[in-house]
Amino acid sequence: MQRLIFAFLLWMGTPGLSPAQTINFQPMSPEAAVAASAQQNKPVLFMAYQGTCGHCEKMINEVFPDTSVSNFYNANYICVKLDMLDQNEAKKYIPKYNISSFPTFIILNGKGEVLSQFVGEFKPSEFVKQGKLALDPEQQLPYLRKRFEAAPADSATTYQYLLALSRGRLSTQPIANQYFAANNNRLDFSTYNWKIVSMSVSDMTSPVFQYMVANKDSFAMASSLKKVERKFYLTAAYNMQVAVSNNDTTQYYRQRDLAAKLKLHTVDSLIFVNDLNLAEKHKQWPRYISTARNGAEKYVWTDANLLRRIADNLYEHSEESSTLQKAANCAVRSAELKPDYFSNLSAAKIYLKLGYTDLAKKYAQRAVDEGGKK
Q1: Averaged over 61-88, what is the pLDDT?
Q2: Contact status, residue 101 vs residue 109, Cβ threshold 8 Å
Q3: Cα–Cα distance between 366 and 317 in angstroms, integer?
Q4: Eight-class DSSP state of 287
Q5: What is the pLDDT of residues 316-338, one digit of tens each?
Q6: Inter-axis angle of helices 265-281 and 304-317, to 10 degrees?
């Protein structure tokens, strides 16, 4: 043991060798770091993270200790980080910097201006690349914003500005609105314009989104029908999910009506699931039953877990035989897709409630058999 300790001390004192280094985060607030930045003429890297975030943990434990990363950031930035699980810190910094996910990296100058913002988990080389981009004056947000404001109808300057905003998941819809208006509410159906609207438009009520919908086939020729429909699906999903998360039923039904006008099966399936979740959340069982009866086979016939959930809710909240038969169909289909204990037991309970004893025994035995395998 003494020899091991001696070897360790010898290694610690050997020139050129040192314990694993990492980014040197300073024990100071972002405001103090900005003040230091003004003195040292060195920008600030502010990392907003959460202690429970797996991506944050990987950056801290695996990426920051990489020597190419630590050497670059320690040489070029004043680095600070704060855990947004601290509610006081979260209330102060999340709205200030429009932080929507973790980790978020914010580059600030000595005046406190945001020069760049980027989000997510990176490989070491990519993280260094982001840091180098942030040092380039022509890649910084203030410069790109001024260029856009000087020529809001220009596709190249608009695209570059949107690209920088997207890296930090910052708001892009206002830029799309300005670009569309500057082009007299008409856009050429070019690949460049498709890139602009697909990366920036998120508001289904906006004129530019409605223009995309009205000219779906033309935009599909510039990209592909699959990409256009995927964009419509993601936009509808985002808007409805925000309303559901905020428990805003008025806004939800407004967004739902807009989404329904897209006439896409994937979007209609999404509407069906959201309608079910909302009815279940508010215990509106007549609405839930009606929605489930009319849409389960059409929209979620390949989703074993959701079909079993529908079956169980219909079983719990209906005594009507035709509804219970629908419930049985859902449970049986769930058992076909995922032949486990729970789906077979669900079918058995429903058939027993319907009075179909033989079928109840059949699925109860299947439940026992599947349970026995576990």
Answers
A1: 97
A2: no
A3: 25
A4: H
A5: 999 999 999 999 999 999 999 99
A6: 40
